[in-house]
Amino acid sequence: MTTVRLPLFPLNSVLFPGLVLPLNVFEERYRAMMRELLKTPEDEPRRFAVVAIRDGHEVAPSAPGMPDPTALPERGPLAGFGADPVKAFHKVGCVADAATIRERTDGSFEVLATGTSRVRLLSVDASGPFLTAELETLPEEPGDEAAPLAEGVLRSFRQYQKRLAGARERSLASGAELPDEPGVVSYLVAAAMMLDTPSKQRLLQAPDTASRLRDELKLLRSETAIIRNLPSLPASELTRGPMSLN
């Protein structure tokens, strides 16, 4: 088992390998993390791990009434996650490589990172100014019939895009060619579909590419049918997620 220790950034969303993650970092615990990452030379990876929050808050109350009107301030790396952070987070996450870390004049950071590989959360250390985690690297196994499954997923995904565009009464700006490598297809489609966090998390932690593609095929057919019956269904951009508040 190969393990690695990295800074830990919990979010209310799921990061997939190959997908871009924009972050607006303003909480002190994550500002401290970015200052530490900036100590790494630019020609080396500035890596941290992203895990989806199972039970807790991405942004901790920082002042009375912020962000919850009834909340009291919380401090420290564990703020908002309870006494046992391992229980607060999903067990499978993704390593992110920060290509851009730009500090603003107010001390906050603008960060642009890319997901690289899956990891399993083993333990969390809250003794420093920000969370760190012991992580097990997870290989991406292809599984059986990944290539034909990817072809089927791409066909269904194009239908899903058309239905979603029709529901929004506009055409999608998706002229770029979609990839055909099964692993890349599985992660791109997982990120692009309009799914809740638990559903995306299940796709991230699928045992292999083929299993993920099979699940996506079922979800695409189900979601396309829902959109067909609810043409006014709202949606956000397919291939871009919202910037995290943190």
Automatic annotation (TrEMBL):
InterPro entries: Lon_prtase_N (IPR003111), Lon_prtase_N_sf (IPR046336), PUA-like_sf (IPR015947). Residues 6-224 form the Lon N-terminal domain. It comes from the Bacteria. SMART domains: LON. This is LON peptidase substrate-binding domain-containing protein.
